């Protein structure tokens, strides 16, 4: 990829960013979390370029300090930033007494944010939610459908705010259904999605929608929300989630569905752009990962607070008084 591009927030070149990513590398099993390779098939690279190509105009006359509070899946939260569905983190640190998944849950609870939880056993999920705070439970597309239904029921009993499936985790690198922790994943048909959505009174979420086509299928299946995402670049050459957000939003007009987005949102400025383009709330995964693994709960809180401040700063500069008032026309795409 071109090396002259500069990160809008850190000022780092692409080469420096890749080097930084290697230094700050994932301590877990090799290959589990793709570190940005800088190559064109790595969708994360395109996320970054897309985000950095969006510039903002100012609308400061009459601007006020913004109110960040928002309603997500029918409940009120302090801001539209949500710690993303991460997983496996309790197993990756040398210090086994640390429980990053619990630390992340506590940070979210302390800040009144909605926390998302990914692939964990029911037992581990139960231990994480015991820390308090609201959670969304994302279940893998297991080949064993009964396992999915069991995890939905378990999440209901543990007061999840919503449940869903990361539908973008179907394919493995060998072009066959993926296997995670030895557990086979399988296909997700429209009928499956409908069956899962109908099996629960909780809002059901399709995570990993990256086209109008899948968004319409999720709507038809009875999903109450979607996450526009490619799951940190599972799909080679994946388009940036933000680039398809507006057409997806348009296609879901009148559905009442909420639209969340993730993908390389590393600062409150990135989050602002996603919200301006129409997301109801945003998920922050790798934006808090280093803080979480290095220093835990308080470091995650500090990072999210900083992101809230950056979000509020840009809202103020662009005359957005609250989370209902975002306007995509403040964004200018630089080619
Ligand atoms: C360590 C790690 C574990 C993850 N585990 C899950 C998971 O179990 N289920 C899921 O839906 N997404 C999982 N994700 C994907 C994130 O929820 C998110 O979609 C992705 O990282 C993109 O957001 P980001 O660019 O802010 O990291 C995981 C991400 C990371 C970094």
From TrEMBL:
<feature type="domain" description="FMN hydroxy acid dehydrogenase">
    <location>
        <begin position="6"/>
        <end position="335"/>
    </location>
</feature>
<dbReference type="InterPro" id="IPR037396">
    <property type="entry name" value="FMN_HAD"/>
</dbReference>
<keyword id="KW-0285">Flavoprotein</keyword>
<keyword id="KW-0288">FMN</keyword>
<dbReference type="GO" id="GO:0016491">
    <property type="term" value="F:oxidoreductase activity"/>
</dbReference>
<keyword id="KW-0560">Oxidoreductase</keyword>
<dbReference type="InterPro" id="IPR000262">
    <property type="entry name" value="FMN-dep_DH"/>
</dbReference>
<dbReference type="Pfam" id="PF01070">
    <property type="entry name" value="FMN_dh"/>
</dbReference>
<protein>
    <submittedName>
        <fullName>Glycolate oxidase</fullName>
    </submittedName>
</protein>
<dbReference type="InterPro" id="IPR013785">
    <property type="entry name" value="Aldolase_TIM"/>
</dbReference>
């Amino acid at each position: 990829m071109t090396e002259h591009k500069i990160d809008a927030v850190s000022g780092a070149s692409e080469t420096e960013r890749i080097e930084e990513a290697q230094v700050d590398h994932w301590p877990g099993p090799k290959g589990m979390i793709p570190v940005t390779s800088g190559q064109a098939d790595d969708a994360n690279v395109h996320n970054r370029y897309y985000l950095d190509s969006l510039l903002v105009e100012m609308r400061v006359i009459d601007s006020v300090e913004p109110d960040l509070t928002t309603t997500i899946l029918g409940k009120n939260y302090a801001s539209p930033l949500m710690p993303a569905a991460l997983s496996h983190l309790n197993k990756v640190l040398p210090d086994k007494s640390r429980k990053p998944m619990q630390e992340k849950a506590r940070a979210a609870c302390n800040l009144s944010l909605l926390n998302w939880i990914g692939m964990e056993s029911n037992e581990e999920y139960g231990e994480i939610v015991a820390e308090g705070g609201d959670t969304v439970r994302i279940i893998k597309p297991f080949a064993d459908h009964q396992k999915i239904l069991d995890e939905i029921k378990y999440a209901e009993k543990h007061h999840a705010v919503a449940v869903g499936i990361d539908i973008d985790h179907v394919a493995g690198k060998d072009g066959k259904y993926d296997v995670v922790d030895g557990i086979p994943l399988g296909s997700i048909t429209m009928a499956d999605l409908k069956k899962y959505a109908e099996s629960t009174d909780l809002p059901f979420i399709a995570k990993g929608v990256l086209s109008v086509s899948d968004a319409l299928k999720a709507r038809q299946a009875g999903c109450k929300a979607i996450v526009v995402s490619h799951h940190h670049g599972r799909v080679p050459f994946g388009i940036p989630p933000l680039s398809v957000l507006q057409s997806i939003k348009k296609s879901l007009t009148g559905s009442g569905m909420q639209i969340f987005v993730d993908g390389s949102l590393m600062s409150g400025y990135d989050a602002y752009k996603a919200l301006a383009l129409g997301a109801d709330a945003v998920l922050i995964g790798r934006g808090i990962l280093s803080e979480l693994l290095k220093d835990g709960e308080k470091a995650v809180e500090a990072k999210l607070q900083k992101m809230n401040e950056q979000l509020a700063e840009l809202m103020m500069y662009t005359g957005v008084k609250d989370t209902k008032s975002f306007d995509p026309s403040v964004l200018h795409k630089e080619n």
